[in-house]
């Protein structure tokens, strides 16, 4: 068997790993690179392997850094199937359509400027036709079912507890009575996340490909502490008729926040407060969440059967039209507005910030990682004047950050995941982490299991196993 790493190797985005056996070429994930525009564009156009040569693709989950280059495969003649869980198939379809739209409008914006400078036009690396072509190749599987991909190769999906439909993927290859098993963790979630079941214990494997996003970090803030902080914020909003503006990713994080606020209401810790979810993608994603109760944990299943819809409540409002979104600008609080993008780089959140940021009664709440150079990062860093739509805007609203909401396993969880594999695998490849994270986790694994072969692959490297 050969393993090659084409992305998310000593970095986080562009997850793409290839398993080759004498009879098959299986691609694990086909993610989009994100980061500096030109470098990312090149990595997204050139996959590093020939799409036509692939037998099949196995997708761990729908996040764009894992699924976002799938349409490029269709564009270049890939004609196999893309296997994933059923929930992932539904989520990936709407997220890829959204990604195509964003690319088309980004390119139109860049081209407008480039044409003025007499430069060549950029083209999206895929469009909505490519998205349609690849979604026709999607095959939804149930968790833990063994899929026969070829006479000697089977694959199965195991709950990863990261986002709806997320899975660790196990590939089993048998030849001359010998079986080799590869387990790819995908992105690992954490126990006790709202909505989702806890990650399945890892099945036995010979080779583990493990994510390392938080390889040198432990998550802060216990659940009870976060609840107290949210309680205080909502009481503040009530007393000062303020708006709580929450930039959040439309898929996963938004639904999680709704469930967390509902929980506070159910526990009578807060009075209901109007929540506006202002993102068409979040509305579409929530519809997918409703269609997949098989992914819920026990608590969410109970809510689902009690009121028919875990995401509905008289105080929760989905905002779809632009007019309704604009109406929120003039409205007075108290209310919570959840909108995207999560790092304030575009989308409707910018309008909400523009209208709310100069009022000291308002609060901007961050619930996720803010990358360098983004507006979100500037706000988290406490800048007093920030650019919104290119206009320097004074910030008077309070900024609050919640650190404990990550959907990723931390260092402690990752080490526990390896410990739970019985018997221990022979080789562990660490992927999906910045170099510093991967190296630190690698050293910790090696110290705990001296006999284990721990490797941190470089992008483009191939390993015989
Ligand atoms: Zn993910």
UniProtKB/TrEMBL annotation:
Start and end residues of each Metallo-beta-lactamase domain: 13-236
SMART domains hit by this protein: Beta-Casp, Lactamase_B
CDD domains cross-referenced by the UniProt entry: TTHA0252-CPSF-like_MBL-fold
GO-annotated molecular function: hydrolase activity; RNA endonuclease activity
Entry keyword set: Hydrolase
Beta-Casp domain location: 254-379
Keyword Repressor: no
Any matching Pfam family: RMMBL
Coiled coil: none
Protein name: Putative RNA-metabolising metallo-beta-lactamase
Organism expressing this protein natively: Nitrospira moscoviensis
